[in-house]
Amino acid sequence: MSAWWLSRHFLGSPASITEARRFVTRFLANWPIAETAELIVSELATNAVRHTASGAFGGRFLVTIEAAHDRVWLGVLDEGGPRFPDVRPCGQDDEGGRGLLLVSALADSWGVSGDERGRTVWALLKVGPVAAAGAASCQ
Ligand SMILES: Nc1ncnc2c1ncn2[C@@H]1O[C@H](COP(=O)(O)OP(=O)(O)OP(=O)(O)O)[C@@H](O)[C@H]1O
Ligand SMILES: [Mg+2]
């Protein structure tokens, strides 16, 4: 069960990626995984803007943070499209393909739900018991 959760919509523009990063660092400021969470959301928000209908005129994406005592779940819901989030093996494409590889390396687990009308790409970060206690006391 989550201790708290927050969601916020962002316009699907490149400038919103910085705003989404700030949203994460603001609400996870005292958590030891704050920087990792920021990096993950940055990659997922960038993908939403670059690869989905969220990046079209008037498009939006939704960032959700769900925190429990020992874990933080991060999700970015986009407005869909024909492409599918796909981790490319290292070295296959010099032009990109590092974002989801990075997310898969940083997160304890990650995944995709939804379909071409809108997908949530999510990542779960576990927090150690001592670290979680410290984060909770500083909220
Ligand atoms: N939210 C998404 N919806 C649909 N397709 C996606 C989404 N995110 C990623 N993809 C697809 O998965 C591929 C791999 O994504 P990834 O973030 O690893 O690389 P990239 O965005 O192409 O490049 P980089 O992140 O290194 O700048 C993308 O090229 C795109 O085709
Ligand atoms: Mg990417």
TrEMBL record:
InterPro entries: Anti-sigma-factor_SerPK (IPR050267), HATPase_C_sf (IPR036890), HATPase_dom (IPR003594). Residues 13-123 form the Histidine kinase/HSP90-like ATPase domain. Pfam families: HATPase_c_2. CDD domains: HATPase_RsbW-like. Keywords: Kinase, Serine/threonine-protein kinase, Transferase. Gene3D superfamilies: Histidine kinase-like ATPase, C-terminal domain (3.30.565.10). This is Histidine kinase/HSP90-like ATPase domain-containing protein. It comes from Streptosporangium fragile.
